Structures are given as structure tokens and as C-alpha cells.
Amino acid sequence: MESKKSSLVTTCRLTIDLEKCLSCAACPPVCHTGALNLSSLLLEINKELCDNCSICIKVCPTGALLFSETTNFKPQG
Length: 77
Hints:
Elements: E1 5-16, E2 36-39, E3 42-45, H1 55-59, E4 65-76
Antiparallel strand pairs: 1-4, 2-3
């Protein structure tokens, strides 16, 4: 009988703290993938385009952008 193994996979995703975000538009111009858009005075992240380079985090004047981690089980085999 085969036993299936699983492993833990941790994923980092860029997130926005909406209480800190001033919609100042400092981050979209530095995003080389075009993942950040400011529309209707709300910052939006296209998570499919974001490559987690963290440049936007460095230019954010309020610290509203940060990475959040999630850990999930990924079955193997």
C-alpha cells in the first residue's frame, strides 16, 4: 500500500493595509510588472502579475504595503 506524502508550502503575497494607504500613487510607477493600479482612489494589486520584488514596499511612505504569508499542505505523489 502506497502512502501519500504531503509537504508544507509557504506563499508570500503582497497585501495592502487599507487603513495606512493614502492612495498617494507612489508605488504604481515603480512596479515593473504593472501589478499595481490606482483606480477610484483605491490601490489594487493584480496578484497574477506581482512577482514579489518588494520595490513598492520600499517606496511606500506609510508602510501600507507588506507581505503576508500563508502556509498550506500540498499533497505529493
